[in-house]
């Protein structure tokens, strides 16, 4: 794998820790041929990790400025990460990532990626501690993410397992988990067949494998799906994090090629 590109990244306009310009400079320093920053789309309810409506406008303007400044050094693209529950974004974007961060249960919005403690709390409060039903409801939402967000690629498909390394919360080989996960994958792949391999949780919480888990990658390959490597970077240091390992995992699951984005559409390269 020689091509380094990344299109899932965040900045101080949402929950990233560095400005867009700092992120672009870091991408150049890493040798990225192409790079995109994907702001979290505003949500219909209060959050502290998404762009505001005003911030969304400012983000797009700043990315336009950076394209003019750095466009001769790498291909720079402006993206948005739409959640299943986010309204239509106001900005004009080069690409869209479709993701799910919440389970809606009894009128409450349960975040799946805040912390292990939050997952345990919500599973206890709303599911009597049954993590398999909790995960089932997550994947039922994921099953509808493609028509809801109209994405160019699917983000962190099995985010519900973020804090489950070593099976701390549930057994990812249990049919009560694999069944809903595979059903959701089949539903999503009918509309959007490009899934990211996301190394972000490997960097931030020490997860041992990227999203999606290997059994899901194998199922995606069997269905003719495709992959794009992403580091879901919230700081410059994580851009391209452990991509070589992710590429080797992809090859072990049957993939020979990956996709990258360009202003004129997706292109293929050999892993």
From TrEMBL:
Reactions it catalyzes: L-histidinol phosphate + H2O = L-histidinol + phosphate
Pfam families in the cross-refs: PHP
SUPFAM superfamilies: PHP domain-like
GO biological process: L-histidine biosynthetic process
EC number per UniProt: 3.1.3.15
Domain PHP: 7-199
Keyword Hydrolase attributed: yes
Pathway the protein contributes to: Amino-acid biosynthesis; L-histidine biosynthesis; L-histidine from 5-phospho-alpha-D-ribose 1-diphosphate: step 8/9
InterPro entries, per the entry: Histidinol_P_phosphatase_HisJ, PHP_dom, Pol/histidinol_Pase-like
Keyword entries, A-Z: Amino-acid biosynthesis, Histidine biosynthesis, Hydrolase
Record-stated family: Belongs to the PHP hydrolase family. HisK subfamily.
NCBIfam families on file: hisJ_fam
Protein name: Histidinol-phosphatase
Source organism of this protein record: Sporobacter termitidis DSM 10068
